[in-house]
Design goal:
Layout: H1 2-22, H2 29-52, H3 56-82, H4 89-105, H5 110-135, H6 143-160, H7 162-165, H8 168-192, E1 195-197, E2 200-210, E3 217-223, H9 228-252, H10 260-276, H11 279-298, H12 303-322, H13 333-346, H14 358-362, H15 378-407, H16 414-426, H17 439-456
Antiparallel strand pairs: 1-2, 2-3
């Protein structure tokens, strides 16, 4: 049972990774979610029984409830693929939302979990409900009508389920491993030119970057991805994860020098991040690592000041770029953000424009080379699609969880809090949101999920861990 519990989330993450590397997205999300919902329920219920000392009758009862909810959700996904027709389509979609929220809430330490995460569960239910409401207006069985169900399930599982059953360190090792593998495969392309590995193209982007101090130029690294921004977000995550693991191994390993392995991974992933030329990744890593290292060397008391300092520094940098004082090219971000803000203010809505491409909403406000682009800001995209109500709910799940972590600094997992601040800033400059199933979206939603879980204390792993009081 323990192996099932561990394998299901890992397989899910690996599948998302390979889905992004192929570029054509032939690996469909629906089979992955079916696997997650059905087999995952068995592993989760069994793990609760073996690790939480529950009686067999209670464990079997939980398993029955889990399976009922899981199979019901699977049925909805299968039916939605063929089309939920009227009459009663709205009621059926509402029932789907209720069943999924029950699925998220049931598990180990139900009362504690619901009590400590009720605000986030409510925010997510409102957020997800808005997109389901928009799906009701779309043609049954179409890809757009199915998208919000798949995206919502993925986001909900990442926020509220996986962090309770897959340890934080296992997640960090997995992220570091995927990132390191991508970087090493990509570095070979500098020596051998772009090449093909099985069905995956490994190569460089047809644009160059200048190496500071040396003045030489290199092609931007794409590695196994079609977009260097994907490598940028993965290497940001991989570098920070390796940094956290380096300290963890240094503090806990009985074998001297073993910390050098994750330390080496910090270096490899840093090189990959640099070569991806992801300036948003540079900034996110600097902020996340800075906050984490302040806690390491100065303690929890300095945590709020560290976050205020680094976030404030980012604000000053943005102001300097906007005023043209720093000589940095914002790549049209301010124009796109301004267009996004104007689109929201000119057409204010409680529930937004729905499941649309945000570029269509900002098109009247931009022209020239930027025409056809999205706002390149996750928060603006959400406010355009889900309106004021959905945007506030999204901010509660992201910024709100960070604020709560700061106020509960004596209990929070500082590593994941720092990680979440990095991702919150990263979303300022990128188009992805948590309500998607790309690699960047899944990584970000998992990080916020681990942050929320660290404040809820409902992980079936940490309840029995001797390391409960010290989150390295």
């Amino acid at each position: 049972m323990k192996r099932v519990r561990q394998i299901i989330p890992v397989v899910f993450l690996l599948a998302i990774f390979f889905r992004d590397t192929t570029g054509d997205f032939q690996l469909q999300m629906r089979p992955l979610l079916l696997l997650y919902l059905v087999f995952g329920t068995i592993g989760f219920a069994g793990y609760i029984y073996f690790r939480d000392d529950l009686s067999a009758s209670i464990a079997l009862g939980m398993l029955a409830v889990y399976l009922f909810l899981g199979v019901s959700l699977v049925w909805f996904l299968l039916v939605q693929a063929q089309g939920i027709e009227n009459p009663g389509r709205g009621s059926k979609l509402a029932l789907f939302l209720v069943l999924f929220m029950l699925f998220l809430g049931i598990g180990a330490h139900i009362r504690t979990f619901i009590k400590t995460t009720s605000v986030y569960l409510l925010a997510f239910s409102i957020f997800f409900g808005i997109f389901i409401l928009h799906a009701k207006e779309l043609h049954p069985g179409s890809g757009l009508a199915t998208f919000p169900l798949i995206a919502g399930i993925t986001m909900g599982l990442n926020l509220f389920v996986m962090p309770r059953y897959l340890s934080r360190d296992a997640f960090l090792w997995l992220v570091t491993g995927l990132s390191t593998s991508s970087v090493l495969l990509g570095l070979i392309a500098y020596l051998l030119d772009p090449y093909r590995l099985l069905s995956i193209e490994v190569g460089l982007r047809n644009s160059v970057m200048t190496i500071p101090l040396f003045g030489s130029q290199l092609y931007v690294l794409e590695s196994v991805f079609a977009n260097p921004n994907t490598l940028g977000v993965l290497t940001f995550a991989g570098t920070f994860a390796a940094l956290v693991l380096t300290r963890k191994v240094y503090r806990t390993s009985p074998i001297r020098g073993t910390w050098l392995l994750p330390g080496l991974l910090v270096g490899i992933n840093s090189i990959g991040l640099f070569l991806s030329y992801s300036r948003a990744g540079y900034l996110a890593l600097a902020v996340a690592a800075g906050i984490y290292l302040v806690d390491v060397y100065l303690g929890r008391a300095a945590l709020p000041y560290a976050i205020l300092f680094f976030v404030g520094t980012v604000g000053v940098l943005l102001l300097g770029m906007w005023l043209g004082l720093l000589g940095l090219n914002p790549a049209g971000r301010f124009t796109l953000w301004g267009a996004g803000i104007r689109a929201i203010l000119d057409s204010p809505s409680l529930i937004g424009a729905g499941i649309i491409d945000p570029s269509a909403s900002i098109a009247p406000y931009i022209d020239g080379q930027l025409s056809g682009q999205s706002p390149h800001n996750s928060y603006l995209s959400i406010f355009i699609r889900a309106g004021i109500l959905g945007g506030i709910a999204y901010l509660i799940l992201t910024v709100g969880s960070i604020f709560q972590g700061v106020f509960r600094k004596s209990e929070v997992d500082v590593a994941m809090l720092s990680f979440a601040v990095g991702f919150a800033l990263h979303q300022l400059f990128e188009a992805y949101t948590l309500f998607q199933f790309s690699l960047a979206a899944v990584l970000a939603s998992l990080v916020f999920g681990y942050l929320i879980e660290s404040q809820a204390h409902t992980s079936v792993l940490r309840r029995r861990s001797s390391d409960t009081q010290l989150r390295l």
